Amino acid sequence: MNFRRQILPALFVSLAFAASSGALSATSAATSAADERADGPAYGSELQGFNYPALVQQFEFTSQGETLHMAYMDVKPVHPNGRTAVLLHGKNFCAATWETTIHRLSDAGYRVIAPDQIGFCKSSKPAHYQFSFQQLARNTHALLASIGAENVTVIGHSTGGMLAIRYALMYPKETQQLVLANPIGLEDWKAKGVPSLSVDQWYERELKTTADGIRRYEQATYYSGTWRPQYEPWVQMLAGMYRGPGKKDVAWDSALLYDMIYTQPVVYELGQLQMPTLLLIGDRDTTAIGKDAAPPEVRAKIGLYPELAKLTAKAIPHATLVEFAELGHAPQMQDPQAFHKALLDGLAAVPVND
User: Fold this and answer.
1) Which of 12, 34, 38, 117 is surrounded by the fewest CB atoms within 10 Å?
2) Do the beta carbons of residue 262 and residue 290 sit within 8 Å?
C-alpha cells in the first residue's frame, strides 16, 4: 500500500485573489445584477440564463428510450501536456462551479472536460429515468468517446466523487488517475441507521428549496462556518432553478438523484480501485445524506470526515491522502490556492502514458 498522509493548514484567500485569478468571471457579473431584485434571479429548468465560464456544447444521445442532451465544456490548453482531466460535479454543484479548477488545470497544460450530468444544471431533466451511478458513468464514457478523450484523469467532488469511483471501477483501463475531493459515499448511511425517504418525500423537501436554506447549509457544511461574497453566485445558481418555470422538473429529478445516492453505496468496492488515487479532504466536512432525518445517536456517528478520510486511504490500494485541517466540504472553493497546489502536485506525481 502506497499511503502518504499530509495535513495542510487553510490558506484563506480574499475576494481580490478570486477576481485576479479569473474565478467567477463569467458568472458573477450576471448574478450581481440579478441579485438586486428582491427575489433573486430565475433560471430555466436547464439553467437557461446562467452563464458558464467557457463555451457550452451538447452531447446528444439516446438512453432508456429517451432522447437526451448532456451539456459540457471542453477547454483545450494553449500548451498541452498530453493529459486530459474530467471534472465531475457534486449534487448541489454544476460544471460551472469548477471554474477556478478549469483555469488552473488548463494553464498547467491539461485538456479539461467538465460535463453536467443528466438531471443536473444545463443537461436534460427526464421525467422517467432510472438514475444509477452505472448509467451516469456510461453516459460520461459515451461523451468522452464522442470527443476522442481516452485514458483520462477523473476528478470527482462530493456526489461526483461517488460517480468517479463507479466510473473508475467500470473503466479501469481508461482511468489513468483518480482524484476524489471530499467525496460522499465513504460510508453506508442506510447501514448506519439513516432512515429511508421515499422519492415522494424527497420531492416534497426539494420543492421547499430557497436561497436562504441553501446559503445556511453551504455556510455550515461547505465552508466550515465562514462566508464570502464569491460563494453567493453558486447559491443563486441553484435557487434560480427553483424560482423558474421548471421548478417541478428540477425538484423531481433531484428527488430521484437523492434516492440513487442513498441506495447505491460504493464504499464496499474501494479495495478494487487499482489506479493511483489522490484524496483531497477538508476535515471540517460533516456531509451525510439524510442526516437531518436521522435520530441524534445516528447523526453523531456519520459524516465524520477526519475518520472517513483515513479509513478510505487505507481501503484504496494506491492512495495518497492530503487533508486540509480547517476546510469544509468544498475545499476547491474555500481555499483555491491550497487546494490547487495539492491537486497539481498530486497529478504531476503520475507520469504521462505514451
Assistant:
1) 38
2) yes
Nearest to 291 by CA among 187, 208, 203, 207: 187
Superfamily (CATH H level) for 4-348: Alpha/Beta hydrolase fold, catalytic domain (3.40.50.1820)
Q: Which residues contact 93 (CB under 8 A, 6 or more apart)?
A: 157, 158, 160, 234, 330
- pLDDT tens column, 19-43: 333 333 444 434 443 443 447 999 9
* pLDDT score of 353: 63
What is the spatial distance between Cα 312 and Cα 186, in angstroms, rounded to a whole number? 7
Other C-beta atoms within 10 Å of 190: how many?
A: 14
pLDDT-flagged residues of the chain (< 50): 1-38, 354
Using DSSP's 3-state secondary structure scheme, residue 13 falls into coil
Q: What is the value of pTM for the model shown?
A: 0.90
Percent of the chain with pLDDT over 70: 89
**Cβ contact 127:250 at 8 Å:** no
290 closest CA partner among 202, 163, 214, 215: 202
Q: Show the cell assigned to 318.
A: 494506491
Q: What phi, psi does 282 have (nearest 5°)?
A: -80, 115
Q: CA–CA separation, 12 vs 15, rounded Å?
A: 10
Helix 232-243 with 247-263: angle, nearest 10 deg? 110
How far apart, in whole angstroms, are the C-alpha atoms of residue 167 and residue 190?
A: 23
C-alpha span between 56 and 27 (Å, rounded): 14
Asked if 83 and 111 count as a contact pair (C-beta separation under 8 A), the reply is yes
